[in-house]
Specification:
This protein has about 170 residues and is mainly alpha-helical. About 80% of the residues lie in helices and about 0% in strands.
Length: about 170
Amino acid sequence: MSDEFLISTFTELRKGFLRLASRFLPNEEDASDALQDAFCRLWPKRNQIHSSKEAEALAVTTIRNLCIDQIRKDKIDVVELDAERDAKPSETIEERIAKEELYREVEEIIHRQLSPVQQQILREKEYEGKSMEEIARTLGMQPAAVRMQLSRARKIIRECYRNRHSHEE
């Protein structure tokens, strides 16, 4: 019975998972392979997954890690997430890996410091590319409340990141 969380999550969120993998891997076939590999890796753990949210979180983490591993293995060019990073096509694999480590650190902050609602809003806005209105409809909130929660979430991430790195100096 518990395998239904994994199956339904992959079925419902396949397009979003594919977009996530495509951000890392330029080849659509490689991105699709990453999804299949993630499902296969999670399948033996299906009895330990107790909710759709847990299945989604494990899937996102697994897909992202598989993509990073593929990049490291093949030393392929990364499909960058933003314009600032796109402006640096001569970036070395070491620089890319360092950036991916930074993203892992930020993801850890997201999972530890943000409320479930803030995590969902951030995921739908940043990973799935949904509009504020779409997110508001999904959550049964006003668009202004969604904007406020997104702003608070980003502020928390910034502050936690700065605090971590100010202690290292």
